[in-house]
């Protein structure tokens, strides 16, 4: 594997793509009219996912050139390097093995990386998490007063929060009756105060998720949660106000996801109740590791393993399917086409499933922390635009908020629409409204009618002549005309099961990887988040009253801190 990335702009395929772009004219209406096989030819499956790429602004020639580009930047070789444990995270000299978290048990030969049997390590932690989850779910694990757990509070931030909370919301129909999970992440004290409000300390279990057990936000919130537990238990007469009782309470009500066992023990948590993971798992790729302990408790170890099966299905597709039919690779390459040639610098993710309301936020970290880079993995500056802003909301909420810009604005916004054939809650409107909604209407069908209609409207628009034919006054015709040629990808699956959720997450992991390979960047480090965190520690004394530290700040920061200090009650 080369130590230097290929500069994509120097490849023959890039030059041909640029020439293709100069002559390119998007015409989705015309393409569909002239090519009855377009939809079938540009639709693919990956696991249970049906992915229709036909409404993208791309011709067969576009896709052929993008696939050639992928080969010329050695995407297949980079895929294999990731799966086999080469140190493709160059700046941290690490393997990238989130895919190892979901390898099939008993796969031969076992995956050995840097002399370590990765399969055995992963299986051991998964078994530990599963046994603990079963213990909590059965009532075998109890709090200090012998009562079973009714609420789990996951304390983490970044990947230790976004992944679990997204998956918890997505899979809530599978939640064990009588159990609730809450998530604390923000160091704003409001978060921990509101998430502990109304809880019974005797039936609350805290999971502190921090690989190093040193993340400022997580450990601050963990100390606040520990203080809350002690205060509440003492007030209820459940424990005495002494060190031994407090220590026993922490051991009964706190566990950790961490490998820093000395720090875990110093906090008061029994190291036997710490579930580890490895430096080859980046935080934003860790929901299927022990970071998912809260999910294993909420939905059960079997459902958690089903989640892993879903990840694996798309992993195997990505690793073995030719690029011409490789769904994550094609989606990633289309994103490169939009970013680097068509000027589409944001990307909307629009799930027509309320359960996925946190999915766009999850993808923000996955994609933007991975590919928001301006240097390549060898330290040289990039030669192209990289990354795009991912954002979105579930439909139909978004239709009444920002779809106006997507339909008729001046910016090109590629969008992914996600939907499921079978809802978690199949409800009917027994009365209807007497006009547009008939009595007994299947509400999910009404919902999906919007899903189908939006991608159709974005693709084909509405011409001025069509508007006039409706009898619209001439002075309003331009306002009611839709240009069309707004690109979308439609992703569907039978239902939102644990397996399908795993497939969706793995899909976007590999989309992100594909783009990173084309751009020659290390998608697995995140040095960009470090400077602000370091400066926060340096600024903190000035905030709390140290005048010498205040004087060391720039004029704007001094002014802002003085405003705060003058007005803090």
3D architecture notes:
With 569 residues, the chain is of the alpha/beta class. It is 47% helix and 11% strand. The protein contains 23 helices and 15 strands. It has helices at 12-23, 28-34, 38-41, 60-72, 75-84, 118-138, 159-170, 189-196, 216-235, 243-253, 261-267, 293-299, 301-320, 327-342, 359-371, 403-408, 443-460, 464-469, 474-477, 498-519, 530-543, 547-551, 555-567; strands at 43-46, 49-52, 112-113, 116-117, 151-155, 180-184, 204-209, 254-257, 274-275, 346-351, 389-391, 415-422, 428-429, 441-442, 488-495. Strands 1-2-15-12-10-11 form a 6-stranded mixed β-sheet, sandwiched between helices. A 5-stranded parallel β-sheet has the order 6-5-7-8-9, with helices on both faces. The chain has a two-stranded antiparallel ribbon with strand order 3-4. Helix 4 (60-72) packs across helix 14, helix 6 (118-138) crosses helix 12 and helix 13 (301-320) packs parallel to helix 20 (498-519).
């Amino acid at each position: 594997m080369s130590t230097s990335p290929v500069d994509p702009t120097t490849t023959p395929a890039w030059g041909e793509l640029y020439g293709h772009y100069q002559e390119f004219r998007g015409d989705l209406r015309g393409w569909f009219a002239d090519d009855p096989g377009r939809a079938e030819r540009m639709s693919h499956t990956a696991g249970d996912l049906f992915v229709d790429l036909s409404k993208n602004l791309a011709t067969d020639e576009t896709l052929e050139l993008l696939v050639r580009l992928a080969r010329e930047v050695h995407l297949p070789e980079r895929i294999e390097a990731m799966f086999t444990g080469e140190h493709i995270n160059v700046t941290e000299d690490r393997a990238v093995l989130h895919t190892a978290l979901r390898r099939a048990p008993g796969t031969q030969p076992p995956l050995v990386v840097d002399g370590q049997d990765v399969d055995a390590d992963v299986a051991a932690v998964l078994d530990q998490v599963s046994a603990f989850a079963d213990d909590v779910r059965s009532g075998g694990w109890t709090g200090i007063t012998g009562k079973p757990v009714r609420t789990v509070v996951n304390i983490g931030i970044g990947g230790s929060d976004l992944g679990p909370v997204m998956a918890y919301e997505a899979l809530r129909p599978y939640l064990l009756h009588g159990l609730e999970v809450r998530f604390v992440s923000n160091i704003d004290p409001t978060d921990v105060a509101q998430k502990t409000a109304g809880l019974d300390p005797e039936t609350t279990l805290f999971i502190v998720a921090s690989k190093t057990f040193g993340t400022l936000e997580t450990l601050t919130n963990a100390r606040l949660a520990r203080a809350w537990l002690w205060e509440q238990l003492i007030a209820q007469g459940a424990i005495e106000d002494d060190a031994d009782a407090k220590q026993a309470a922490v051991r009964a009500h706190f566990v950790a996801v961490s490998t820093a066992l000395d720090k875990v023990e110093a906090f008061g948590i029994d190291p036997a109740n710490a579930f580890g993971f490895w430096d080859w798992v980046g935080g934003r790729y860790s929901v299927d590791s022990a970071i998912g302990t809260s999910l294993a408790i909420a939905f059960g170890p079997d459902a958690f393993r089903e989640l892993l099966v879903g990840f694996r299905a798309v992993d195997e597709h990505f690793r073995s399917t030719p690029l011409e039919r490789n769904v994550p690779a094609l989606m990633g390459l289309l994103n490169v086409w939009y970013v680097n040639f068509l000027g589409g610098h944001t990307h909307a993710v629009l799930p027509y499933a309320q359960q996925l309301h946190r999915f766009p936020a999850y993808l923000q970290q996955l994609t933007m922390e991975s590919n928001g880079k301006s240097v390549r993995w060898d330290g040289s500056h990039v030669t192209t635009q990289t990354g795009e802003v991912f954002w979105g909301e579930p439909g139909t909420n978004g239709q009444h908020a920002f779809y106006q810009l997507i339909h008729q604005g001046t910016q090109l916004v590629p969008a992914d629409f996600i939907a499921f054939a079978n809802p978690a809650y199949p409800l009917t409107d027994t009365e209807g409204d007497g006009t547009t909604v008939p009595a007994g209407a299947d509400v999910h069908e009404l919902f999906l009618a919007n899903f189908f209609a939006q991608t159709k409207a974005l693709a084909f628009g509405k011409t001025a002549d069509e508007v006039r034919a409706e009898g619209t006054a001439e002075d309003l015709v331009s306002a009611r005309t839709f240009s069309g040629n707004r690109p979308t990808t439609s992703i569907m699956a039978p239902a939102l099961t644990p397996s399908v959720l795993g497939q969706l997450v793995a899909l976007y992991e590999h989309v992100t990887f594909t783009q990173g390979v084309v751009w020659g960047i290390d998608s697995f480090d995140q040095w960009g988040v470090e400077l602000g965190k370091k400066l926060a520690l340096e600024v903190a004394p000035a905030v709390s009253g140290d005048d010498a530290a205040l004087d060391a700040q720039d004029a704007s920061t001094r002014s802002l801190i003085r405003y705060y200090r003058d007005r803090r009650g």
